[in-house]
Amino acid sequence: MPDIAFVKPALPRAGAMVLPLAEEAPLAGLAKQADEATGGAISRGLEAAKFKGRKGQTTTLWAPGAGLTKVIAIGLGKPADIAATGAEAAGGAIAGPLAQEREAVVAADGLEPAFAASLAMGVLLKSYRFDRYRTTEKEEDKPKLERVAVAVSDAAKAKAAFAPMQAVADGVFVTRDLVSEPANVLTPAECAERCKALTKLGVEVEILGPKEMRKHGFGALLGVAQGSANEPRMVVMKWNGAPKGKKVGKPLAFIGKGVTFDTGGISIKPAGGMEDMKWDMAGAGTVVGLMAALAGRKAKADVVGIIGLVENMPSGTAQRPGDVVTTASGQTVEVINTDAEGRLVLADVIHYCIEQHDPRFMVDLATLTGAIIIALGHEHAGLFSNDDTLAQRIEAAGKAVGEAAWRMPLGDAYDKQIKSDIADMKNVGGRPGGSITAAQFIQRFVQGKTWAHLDIAGTAWSTKDLPTAPKGATAYGVRMLDRLVAEHYEG
Ligand code: BES
Ligand code: MN
Ligand code: ZN
C-alpha cells in the first residue's frame, strides 16, 4: 500500500503530478503554477485533449516540461457536486495511471481538506492487489507506487481527516486478503490463525474448536463441518474501546458466515463456477476486516465480532439430505438441502453470541443465497431487519460510503415456507423468495433481539473493476459498518 503524506502546496522538482480539476474551472493554485512553469504546456495539452473536468474524465500528458514526467488530470464534475464518494472515485481513477510511478504529487489545494483525504483514500483502495501467488511477473509490470504527497492548504486538517481512513483502508485490505485466498490455503483453522494478527491492534482473539462447539451443542454448524477433513473453528474478536465511564455494558455484535469452501455437500453444486465458492467466507472476512478497522482507528465502542468457519464437503462422513440436527438453541432442523449450509452455521453462532455477549444489536453478514443476486444483481446487498431504526442507519451508512443495501421484507407468510413435517423447521423454503426464507430461518435464532442480516452474495466479489476496488474481493460491508459505528454508537 502506498504511503500517503499531506504537504504544503509546492511544485515537485520532478516526477508525476495529479491535477484534480472541477468542470470548466480555470487552472488555479498549484495547477496554475505548474502550468506557468511548463510555459503553458499543461493548459495547451488539456485543451488539445478536450479535457473539460467532467466527473471521471481523465487525461494524461507526458513530459510537459519543468521536470514533470507525467501530468494526470482527473475531472471532479461541477464544483457544487463534489462529494466524498466522488473524491474517492477520482482517487480510484488515478490509481491505474499512477501504478508505474514511484511517487506523485496531487495538487489538491483547491479541495476541502476532507475531500483531499477522501481522494487519497480512493487511491489506496483502488491500489489493492492480491499478488502472493504470482512468481513470474516481470519487474516492469509490477506496481511501483510508494508515496503519494497530497498538497493541500490545510495539511494538518487533511491529515487528521485521513487518519481514521487509513485504518479503514487497512481493514479493507485485511478482508480482501482473506477473501482472495484459495480454499486449500485458507482452511477454517488457517483463517482462525490469521485472526490472531488483530491482537497487535488491541483486539482480544479467542478461538474455539470442535470440542468446545460440541460442549455448546453446535449441532447445526458441526453437521455442516462433518463432511470435511478440515476441522471447523469459531473466532470471537473483542474490541473494548468505549471510554471507561461511558460503558453501556452491551457490545455491538457483528457475525460472519465463514464457509471456506462450499461444494454444496451431498447436494453438490454443478462444476461450472464452483471455484467462486472459495469466497463463501466473505461474511467472516468482512467481520475480521471491520474489527481491524475499528481497532485501528480506536473506535470508542465495545464491539464483538464472531465468525463461524467450516468447509462444506461431500464425503462418507458428510451429512445427508433429510438428516435432523439439533441447534445450540435446542431447536431442531431438518436438513433438506445440504447446500443451504450458511444459515445452519449462523444459527449456532448467533445463539452463542446472544448467550455469551448479550449484544445491543447483532448484524450478520453472509454470502447466503444465489437468489439475492437474482433479486438485486450486484448493485445492492439484501438488508433484512426486525428493527426499522437499525435498518435505516445501515442503509444510510452504506449510501454514504458507496456500499448500497436494499431493504427486503420479512413476515409470517414467508416463515411458513420453512415449516417441517418432522422437526421445528427445515433449512430451505423452496424457490419463491429464497433470500427471504433464508432470512426467516436466521430470524428464528435471534430471540427477538435487535438484528439485521446482510446477504452479500452479490456484492462481496466483483468480476469487473469498481470505482474504489479492482476486480475480485470487494470487502463490501467493512466501510458501511465502520460508518454505522462511527455515526451512531461512539457518542
Ligand atoms: N454460498 C451459497 C450462496 C451463493 C451463491 C453465494 C452464489 C455466492 C454466490 C449458499 O450456501 C447456497 O448454496 N445457497 C443456495 C440455497 C438453496 C440450496 C436454498 C442457493 O442460493 O442456491
Ligand atoms: Mn451452499
Ligand atoms: Zn454457502
Automatic annotation (TrEMBL):
EC number annotated for this UniProt entry: 3.4.11.1, 3.4.11.10
Pfam families attached to this UniProt entry: Peptidase_M17, Peptidase_M17_N
GO molecular function: manganese ion binding; metalloaminopeptidase activity
Binding site for Mn(2+) 2: K257, D262, D280, E341
Top-level taxon of the source organism: Bacteria
Cofactor: Mn(2+)
Assigned keywords, A-Z: Aminopeptidase, Cytoplasm, Hydrolase, Manganese, Metal-binding, Protease
Main subcellular localisation: cytoplasm
Family according to the record: Belongs to the peptidase M17 family.
Function: Presumably involved in the processing and regular turnover of intracellular proteins. Catalyzes the removal of unsubstituted N-terminal amino acids from various peptides.
Protein name (Swiss-Prot/TrEMBL): Probable cytosol aminopeptidase
Organism this protein belongs to: Neoroseomonas soli
